Amino acid sequence: MGLRANVILVCLLLPCLLCCGCRTAGFDIEELGFVQISAFDRTDDGLIQVSVQIAKPFAITSSAGPPIDEKPYWTVSSTGQTCYQAIRNLSTQSPRIIFWGHNRLTLLGENMAKSGVSEVLDLLQRNHEVRSSMDVMSVRNASIDEVMATMFELERQPVKGFFGLLWSIQRRNSTSFPQSVLELSRKIETEGMEPVIPSVEVVNRSDEETAAPGQLREEVVMDSVRINGMAAFKEDKLVGWLADRESRGVLWVLGKAQRGILVIRDPRDDNNLISIRIGASSSKIVPEIVDDRPVIRVVVEAEGDPLEIDGDASFLHHPEIWASMERRMAAVIRNEIQMALTAGQQQFQSDIFGFGRAFYSKYPHEWQLIKDNWDNIFPTLEVQLDIIANLKEPGLTVEGVRQAQ
Amino acid sequence: MRRYLRTGQRQLLQSPSSDVPMKDEIRLNLTENENQIRTAFGYSTDLVIRKVKFGAYIDTKLLIVHIDGLVNNNGISESVIKPITLLSDWPPLTDPAPAQIFAQLKNRLITNSELTEVGRIEDLLSEVCFGNTAILVEGHNVALIADLKGWKERNIEASTTEPALHGPKESFVETMRTNTSMIRRHIRDPRLRIEERTIGAIGRTSIAIVYISGIARDSIVQEVRNRIDRISIDSIQSSGMLEEFIEDSPFSLFPTIARTERVDRTLSTLLEGRIVIMTEGTPFSLIVPCNIFMFISSPDDYYENSLIGSLLRFLRIFLFLISLMLPGMYVAATAFHPEMIPTPLALAIAAQREGLPFPALFEALLLAISFEALQEASIRAPLVFSATVSILGILVLGQITVQAGLVSPFMVIVIAITGIASMALPSFSMSISIRVLRFALLILGGILGLYGVIWGMAALLIHTATLRSFGVPYSEPIMPLGISGLGDSQVRISQWLKRKRPTLVSGINKTRQAAGQKPSPPTPEEKKASAKEEES
After folding, report:
1. How would you list the strands of the sheet with B285-288, edge to edge?
2. Are both B286 and B386 inside the same structural domain?
3. Is B392 exposed, middle or buried (0-12, 13-18, 19+ CB in 10 A)?
4. Is the domain of B189 the same as that of B81?
5. Number of domains present in the structure of chain B
6. Which of A100, A229, A274, B199 sits at 20 to 30 Å (Cα–Cα) from B121?
């Protein structure tokens, strides 16, 4: 390539460099206020309240420096007629440019959730700084300010605490399941499927006895939070709360219940309890049309390991008792799903299981006929449950402790 | 040797500003000749002219001319002076005419292997300048030239600029003849061609074009010859100067001629069909045509397992990119794209940058320039100051700047990693180009963010794609794709897989070796055969 061609190339490229408009920041990293948790709610006088926790980088203890006895975040809130206005009103209090790129969690207040969250979701998805992959949770029985004021004993940054909760509950108990802003919005938009998102509530600890008698130092115990089941939505509005076992019922159907402990009674002695650790599960929603009536068949296949056996464990050698335990495990699962179905169909009348969506996929033409009437069909929809439970390994020991004596 | 001299003579004839008595023939009168030689050298003190008598009985005088320090004194006394003075009496000459004496000298007495005749003063001077010894006979107008060169030269030592753990240690020295002999010693085939040229009207530096006939492509050899013959200069001190005269893109930052001081590396490139140019006085050989992958390969790649060799290549490509882009990427990410950095890291960077006086770009420039200064100082400073340089470098760059709140520790880490990455590249000529380009990308990244870095990289890519080294594309064998060369580019395949030489470089002889040489356990037939042998 000759010199002239080079010059032409440079002349062509230079305008591209200068005319592009993707430079929005223009601030160095230390001039930004990193939002870690955001929360939205509606005040009693109809305004939108936004509350954010902004990281204080200088107060985050590094391994090298001495421990800093200072909260590593700053909570600030403001109000406005719309979400965006409320956010921009934060700048009257924040000396740093508020940066949303690292916001990983957003909380929806109860008032806001009941009156509809589409406004917030629209803002969060429209804004280029915000990650749609951030998790969303619903606040139950508390104001967002109360939740934002809680602290975790194990984490200095609340965002890490919330994340830890979501992860541990997903990996240990399956009584709740993380949902991102994107998934929430998608489920709101999808026909025949309603969203469920984790719900968080405040555990009041401040009033508890803080110092045991004889203890020298009085420890300040802050309020903390716990994840309590999930919040069921209908379209963009909160319609009700699912307790822990109901939530797991929903998650069984959705195929998301992968971990947790099921307690069954010993088939030979009802006084003895056996804990079964859920190992894996899968589910299939099979829509059918029987006599022009839509019917749903849910096939759930679950695996578990009996890992706490109270009493005689010799039955492990008897296949018929083993099978009976599997039936009892299936019954527990069926029970959980039934609770969820009752809540979803009767209480909330919200298709949080995505049955409508399943019909849409399998019978697209028939769906067109029933979709407008789905809200009426769903509460009385016949749901057949088909639970297959398999027990696998009884842990490291075979004989029970009591038996060995 | 003769060829070498002939070109030297031609060069001398071409030189316009020589005040040497040009066209004169050697005279019959010895004193006149002596005077002429002395005048030509302006009575330089290193010129040695010894007058001896031919034996004990004949009075004819002989003149022995050489330059002190360029000749082997033992050799002169053993093979020139001793025969003339002590051994010339028996058998006695029947006719002591100068022509007879000359013939006697040439055919019998002078025991040196390389002996030529010259008839002109000018040629004689040139020979003497090259370190040869001239012998003139009273009454004869032809001089004998004996090659008795000998001077102090550096020993062959292990390579200091391209160290390798395994493999041969020897590296080139300043004497070209020693260097060509090292090559010849390893390629014992008459097809190894060493063509010599003399460049520089005054310096008269010898330059050798070394290639293997048939393996090197004739058109490229001819191109090398043409480019070297085109040079008209007073003197060339080092191959670096020669490079500037013969490279394809003089303004490109990328080196299009590879250098090495390793003999093994030179040999392997010769066997690929590349051409090596050696310069008298430079312990580096120039390799043409070269491609960009030659700058990330090290001889050790070939002496280790091919998997390890390939992994090392990948590591070096990675380090190449790191040393090119890391500061630019870091500045772009912190100043423009904080959302790209993982949250804990972003907060840690923000915490460290708290209260720093400079924006990220200037912080990076400050540190990068200090690092360059340190690197330059450690090369240039006399050895006695090296401790001072390193202590100051460690203190000032590593500690004080951070403690004083001028730069953040992260930036120090970034610049340090970049520095280490660039030093891990086996070729200094490439890493020095990257040092410059790194600044360009840093400034682009600091002004335009990742967008600028990407444009910079795109421009570099386009540029390397247009580069050529002696007509062969620089990014060969990737672009244009050369299957046979791919095995020795980003990866280094096993020796027994390397069947062909690089397509674009090599000449007619393209096959390196036979197929199917992968080592394997003996086949049943072979086992049977060896069992039979054992029985018998």
Report:
1. B192-199, B205-212, B275-279, B285-288, B258-260
2. no
3. middle
4. no
5. 3
6. B199
Task: Kindly give the residue spans of alpha helices, DSSP state H, lying in B279-408.
Answer: 299-303, 306-335, 343-353, 360-380, 386-392, 401-403
Q: Report if residue B494 sits inside a domain.
A: no
Q: Confirm whether B440 is domain-assigned.
A: yes
Contact A34 B343 (CB under 8 A): yes
> What is the distance in angstroms between the Cα of A26 and the nearest Cα belonging to chain B?
6
Distance CA B475, CA B251 (A): 17
Is B263 contained in some domain?
yes
Distance CA B296, CA B293 (A): 5
User: Does the pLDDT of residue B16 top 50, yes or no?
Assistant: no
Residues B309 and B423 in one domain: yes
**A101 in contact with B, Cβ within 8 Å:** yes
Exposed/middle/buried for residue B242 (C-beta within 10 Å: 0-12, 13-18, 19+): buried
At A90-120, the pLDDT tens digits run 999 999 989 999 999 999 999 999 999 999 9
| Domain final residue pick, B421, B449, B473 | B473
* B124 plus B28 within the same structural domain: yes
Task: Return the DSSP state at A258.
Answer: -
In sequence order, the β-bridge partners of residue B260 are: B285
Residue B199 and residue B92 in one domain: no
* Minimum distance, in Å, between the CA of residue A152 and any CA atom of chain B: 18
Give the bridge partners for B500, in sequence order: B511
C-beta atoms of A23 and B449 within 8 A: yes
- Give me the pLDDT at residue B122, please: 86
- CB contacts of B355 in chain A (<8 Å) are 30
For A58, which of B335, B351, B466 is closest by C-beta distance? B351
B189 and B278, same domain (yes or no): yes
Give the C-alpha separation, A117 to A268, whole Å: 51
From residue B122, alpha-carbon distances to B8, B13, B237 in Å are 11, 9, 24
Residue B520 lies in a domain: no
Token pair 């600028």 is found at B452
A302-328: pLDDT as tens digits: 999 988 887 777 777 788 888 999 999
| Residue B249 backbone phi and psi in degrees, to 5 | -125, 95
| B324 and B463 co-located in one domain | yes
Q: How confident is the model at residue B392 (pLDDT cuts 50, 70, 90)?
A: confident
Average per-residue pLDDT in chain A? Answer: 87
Contact between chains at B349 and A32 (C-beta distance less than 8 A)? no
Q: Across the interface, do A101 and B448 touch by the CB < 8 Å criterion?
A: no
Q: Which of residues 35 through 64 in chain A touch B, CB cutoff 8 A?
A: 36, 55, 57-58, 60, 62
Which tokens belong to A177? 């399941």
**Domains in chain A, please, with CATH?**
256-405 (3.30.300.210)
Host H or E run for residue A171: helix A158-172
Q: Give Dmax (Cα) for chain B.
A: 104
User: Which residue segment(s) compose the domain that B254 sits in?
Assistant: 176-290
| Same-domain pairing of B317 and B284 | no
CB contact set of A387 (below 8 Å; sequence gap of 6+): A300, A301, A302, A330, A331, A333, A334, A337
Q: Is the dihedral of CA B154, B156, B157, B161 positive or negative?
A: positive
The answer to whether the beta carbons of residues A95 and A27 sit under 8 Å apart is no
State the ipTM, two decimals. Answer: 0.83
Candidates B79, B73, B63; CA nearest to B150 is B73
Per-residue DSSP letter, A382: E
Pick the last residue of a domain from B473, B499, B527: B473
Torsion of CA B498, B503, B509, B514, to 10 degrees: 20
Averaged confidence pLDDT in chain B: 88
pLDDT for residue B242: 93
Tell me whether residues B334 and A60 touch, CB distance under 8 A.
Answer: no
